[in-house]
Design a protein that fits this description.
heterodimer, A: 551 residues, alpha+beta, TATA-Binding Protein, 4 domains, seven-stranded antiparallel sheet, six-stranded antiparallel sheet, 11 helices, elongated, B: 308 residues, mainly alpha
Chain lengths: 551, 308
């Protein structure tokens, strides 16, 4: 990025990039100006040169690549919060230390941020002067023909008589001009340059990257992402209380949540039923929802699918997961309903064996909790244990292990609704108790041991995990990214090239110089000579009054 | 939504891949002999190298045709694009590498020297693919049923292929400029194999040419890789409700992009051209291989499509 094109006398070394490469620039790259006293301003200038030098940019890029690696090795809070929790449980000694070094938040860590901010400072510091130089270059005529064309990386000398020499300059001017060159005749030579778009593209690329960064930052600040598990028949209302979990950006304001509601009417899954090796593989998930704006009587019914989010005003609703939610009713020992409703079970395998937890703190005479498995299509293993053999509910069965004792919900410490701390509780069914686990099919009721009451499996529903997301920056991220891509292509593919033609005593000579990589450079001059010759011949033919054989 | 997988055809496709492997292996052997003959001191042997070159090239073409049938067969058997798991990505990816190599060779003769590398590499990848990554044809999981699977992955495969050929050229460059090779010290210079290696390397194009050709393949690869990244973000926004989330695969796509961006800067930085930038190409390609193998199989993330 850094070193700008200050020198007009760029010496070609055949290096495939745009800038640098002038012997003059060498000193600048090696940085330290050799004045004996630098002073404060001198030092600042020296530091600025270091920061904006190409080598710094290169090192920062490589450093950024290396710094990104730990985030793929250790679980990240942003992408995998459960993984972080698990890591802490498994490595209680090292995890807190690693956390100090922000190894679980690599991409928002101070060290990662420092690298990319420095990189962008370097980028801006490099690009700004280059914009000025380029803007000037766009206004100036092409560089005058050098004295010694022979030193150019491509050079040709053509012998020509006086007649040819007389028209060669005009012809060359015309041909180069129509070939997209900026062309100027001065004295006995033509100077031409093309490919200004190369540098333009390069600058656009770098500026667009700044645009991407700003869009990511600003967009992230105003964004939010909320999750909600919605059981069939339930309605989600878009306010903070409606979410199971919610991750706002730093500038998020609750008024951003547009008032709408969404009811999950039905969740359905299509399975592969035709291919023997593939039976039971889900092919399609569909969540049919009814949407309604607050204050409006109009409702609309839409289907959310994977890859097909539904747009609602101000956000999009995505389908991110699904599972079963058996509707359970529990009456306690006194005959009162202590629990009733759908219970969200978490899938444990591809056949949707699911784990659910029910806590009944209000039961009389005693509190109890239930660890439960759900098998959509229950089959019996050789060991006698149940297992799900198919993910669709062909033979749905719920099994339950009952744990009696203080559930600890009154202590005020928030507890995970998806897990039951069995420590300190007395297990009454399943496992080593000798009492068989409770097994229920839809519509069945069982009596709980120890006079705890009864439990019923009323019906089976499905649930959908929905993600409601809003990010105002992403459109701009995309626009800038595409702009960067366009700039990149321009800067890498368009050749920047200077061509000179000069009349000499016994003919004319041509020289060409490329800035950056130019696969065609060697061919350019030969082609130009051929065209000049053709031009001359056709003009000659025309002047002789014969049939012109133009083109 | 129901798709009829054709397992018979997928078995035939696998057979095609095996046959292609045999032909690539044959091409590899012939091209290796060709290299050693081209480097021979005896004029007669050097002459025979030309014939071997043609034989090697035509073997590669035959292998590519068989390979192509295998890929197409797999696609028809699965009724979709043949790159939804690691096995399919590997067979399609290597096929694209070979096709790009053969086209480049037709356009620019210099590049034929890396034929040995390309065929050898393809045999290796196909060997791993058929032995370790193989899975029967499966229907697509819902997240993959999207036209972005065609766009995103096609471009990723193309980018990988260009990077692959560039890496071969840069590795050759590094051998050619290696100090131990150019100015050998001690007994090594008298070894027969060393002399042969030196002669072989002499037969390759000049260093500068290798460097430039590698650069040209790399810039195409870089443009395609940038597009892969953008296309992936667009798809992620639809499928995963965010355009970028530092998923392990996203992280590595970013790392690779950054390494090659560094490489482009290295090419314009004094003291970083030549060997250092060639090493960056090798590191970049190593990251791509790492991304495809280790990240796919052992890292936790959303891109869990290995099918294993």
């Amino acid at each position: 990025m850094a070193t700008s094109q200050r020198s007009k006398k760029t010496v070609a070394t055949g290096r495939p990039e745009d800038h640098v490469l002038s012997a003059e620039l060498a000193g600048e790259n090696n940085a330290a100006p050799r004045q004996p006293e630098l002073g404060v301003v001198g030092w600042l200038r020296w530091i600025w040169r270091q920061v904006t030098s190409m080598r710094t940019a290169l090192l920062l890029l490589l450093l950024l690549a290396a710094a990104a690696i730990p985030g793929s090795i250790f679980p990240q809070r942003s992408a995998d919060p459960n993984g972080v929790t698990t890591y802490f449980q498994q490595n209680p000694q090292s995890a807190p230390v690693m956390d100090k070094f922000q190894l679980f938040d690599v991409y928002s860590s101070s060290w990662f941020s420092a690298i990319y901010i420095l990189l962008f400072v370097s980028l801006i510091g490099c690009v700004l002067p280059r914009i000025a130089v380029h803007a000037k270059a766009l206004r100036l005529p092409p560089v005058a023909t050098p004295k010694n064309l022979k030193r150019m990386p491509a050079y040709l000398a053509v012998k020509a008589g006086a007649k040819k020499r007389a028209v060669a300059l005009d012809d060359a001017y015309r041909l180069l001009k129509s070939g997209g060159y900026r062309t100027v005749v001065s004295g006995n030579s033509v100077a031409a340059e093309r490919g200004y778009w190369r540098e333009t593209g390069n600058l656009v690329f770098h500026i667009a990257l700044v645009g991407v960064l700003i869009s990511v930052g600003v967009g992230g600040a105003y964004s939010y992402s909320g999750q909600r598990v919605l059981v069939e028949g339930d309605t989600f209302v878009n306010n903070l209380a409606g979410y199971d979990s919610f991750n706002p950006g730093i500038a998020f304001n609750e008024s951003q949540l547009t008032p709408f509601s969404a009811r999950l009417d039905k969740f359905s899954v299509s399975y592969d039923l035709t291919n023997p090796t593939n039976i039971g593989t889900p092919l399609d998930f569909r969540a049919k929802v009814t949407l309604q704006q607050r204050g409006s009587a109009r409702t609309s019914t839409q289907t959310i699918r994977v890859n097909q989010p539904v747009e609602v005003p101000g956000s999009k609703i995505y389908l991110t997961g699904n599972g079963y939610a058996p509707v359970i009713t529990i009456r306690d020992g006194d005959g009162n309903v202590a629990f009733s409703g759908p219970v969200v079970y978490l899938p444990q395998d591809s056949n949707m064996t699911s784990l659910g937890v029910i806590k009944v703190p209000d039961a009389k005479p005693e509190q109890f909790g239930i660890l439960s498995f759900f098998y959509p299509t229950a089959g019996t293993l050789k060991t006698g244990a149940l297992a799900s053999v198919y993910p669709d509910p062909a033979n749905p069965v719920v099994t339950m292990n009952i744990y009696k004792g203080n559930l600890g919900l009154d202590s005020g410490i928030p507890s995970n609704v998806f897990s039951l701390a069995v420590h300190g509780l007395k297990q009454l069914t399943g496992g080593k108790t000798g009492v068989k686990s409770i097994e229920l099919k839809p519509g069945q009721t069982a009596t709980l041991p120890d006079g705890l009451g009864t439990v019923s499996f009323n019906e089976l529903r499905r649930y959908a995990s929905l993600d409601i997301d809003y990010n105002p920056g992403q459109v701009y991220v995309l626009i800038f990214a595409l702009l960067a891509l366009a700039g990149l292509i321009m800067s890498l593919v368009i050749p920047r090239r200077r061509v000179w033609v000069r009349i000499i005593d016994d003919g004319y000579e041509l020289g060409a110089l490329a800035r950056g990589d130019d696969p065609q450079l060697d061919r350019v001059l030969g082609d130009l000579v051929n065209k000049l010759e053709a031009e001359y011949q056709s003009a000659k033919a025309a002047s002789k009054g014969q049939e012109a054989t133009e083109e | 939504m129901q798709v009829h997988l054709n397992e018979g055809l997928s078995q035939l496709s696998l057979l095609g891949i095996y046959a292609a492997m045999a032909l690539y292996a044959a091409a590899f052997v012939v091209l290796s002999i060709q290299l050693s003959r081209a480097a021979s001191e005896q004029a007669k042997l050097r002459k025979s190298a030309g014939v071997l070159q043609s034989v090697g090239t035509w073997l590669t073409v035959a292998a590519a045709l068989t390979h192509g049938l295998g890929v197409v067969g797999r696609a028809i058997a699965a009724q979709r694009v043949p790159w939804a798991n690691m096995y399919e990505f590997a067979i399609t990816g290597t096929f694209v590498v070979v096709v790009i190599f053969l086209i480049s060779q037709a356009v620019r003769k210099d590049i034929r020297f890396i034929g040995t590398f390309v065929t050898g590499f393809v045999v290796l990848v196909l060997g791993i693919a058929t032995n370790v990554y193989y899975v029967e044809v499966k229907t697509l999981m819902p997240a993959l049923q999207d036209y972005w699977l065609v766009i995103h992955v096609t471009v990723a495969i193309l980018a990988t292929a260009f990077f692959n050929i560039a890496a071969a050229l840069s590795i050759t460059y590094l051998f050619k400029t290696a100090k131990w090779q150019v100015e050998p010290k001690g007994a090594i210079a008298k070894q027969v194999w060393f002399k042969a290696l030196q002669r072989i390397l002499k037969a390759f194009p000049a260093e500068e040419k290798l460097e430039r050709t590698s650069y040209r393949f790399n810039i195409i690869g870089f443009i395609l890789w940038s597009f892969t990244l953008i296309a992936g973000a667009i798809w992620a926004e639809r499928a995963w409700h965010r355009y970028w989330g530092w998923d392990t695969k996203e992280v590595w796509t970013f790392i690779i992009w950054t390494i090659y961006a560094g490489y482009l800067h290295a090419n314009a930085t004094r003291g970083w051209t030549g060997k250092r930038s060639a090493w960056l190409v090798v590191i970049g390609f190593a990251a791509i291989v790492f991304n495809f193998t280790i990240v796919n199989l052992y890292f936790k993330g959303l891109h869990v499509y290995s099918g294993l």
